Amino acid sequence: MDLIITLALNGLATGMLIFLLAAGLTLIFGLMDVLNFAHGGLFAWGAYSGVWVYTVTGSFVIGIIGAIVTGLVLGFVTEKFIIQPVYGNHVQQILITLGFMLVLTELLKVVWGPNQLSATAPDYLAGSFSIGDIIVIKYRVFIILIGLFIFTIVQLILNKTRIGLIVRAGVMNKEMVEAFGINIKRVFMYVFMVGSALAALGGILLAPYSGVIYAEMGMEFAILAFIVVVIGGMGSFPGSLFAAILVGLSGSFMTYYVPELSLAVNMILMALVLIFRPQGLFTVKG
């Protein structure tokens, strides 16, 4: 039982990191109908910039803020100059954002070099504590709590606030919203920036969790994020949380019990969903 709980906590922590990346994708695709394959690059830039700020200042909190600011700035640049010219054209969105992902990855190597960078958790999040015979790693609990907090806040904003109402109304009928004098393009830009900031937040939180960061990490985690979006349901925010936890748990248990399937299990899950429920496990309410 102790082993199962340990594997579950590890899977939950991994799932929450994937959720932060997938959550941004879900917001951007579900609300704006934009396929942003450069999202993983924003994740990697959040990791690098956050670790750099953390190293310079010695404050992990300031490092997190630095990563979020990086995500907001890159999100603005991406939406303004990369996405706006190709709104409504998925093929062009895929091609141009894939290219931008490669540019972001190479720029990381130019700024910080091609080698891996190490990162450690701050002293107050390092180590572990015991619950009976179970050893619980503090940083994993921290990641799980951050993920749940972000999910709760975004859900409240989307469903209980005026800005959430405007965003959802703009998705259904942009012309109607603009008739009320609301600049829906500006609102969508803010949504894109928030989604990018969530990706960057996931990047900096991953750094002490894995211990190292590298330029290609964005591409690898972007694949997992897209799997999560497909499994959870395109545009479903609760679905992205559920699917990310499912992917994290399956990866954790398979790595221990059936390591030969640890890399394939997520692809198998996605294939099963596409066969039996192609709209995803959760449907988006109109």
TrEMBL record:
- Chloroplast: is it a keyword of this entry? no
Any single biological process term in GO:
amino acid transport
Classify the protein's membrane topology as the record does: Multi-pass membrane protein
Q: Which controlled-vocabulary keywords does the entry list?
A: Amino-acid transport, Cell membrane, Membrane, Transmembrane, Transmembrane helix, Transport
Taken from the record, one Pfam family name reads BPD_transp_2
Q: Where are the transmembrane segments?
A: 7-31, 51-74, 94-112, 139-158, 187-209, 221-249, 256-276
Taxonomically, which superkingdom?
Answer: Bacteria
Molecular-function GO term, any one: transmembrane transporter activity
What protein name is recorded for this chain?
Answer: ABC transporter permease
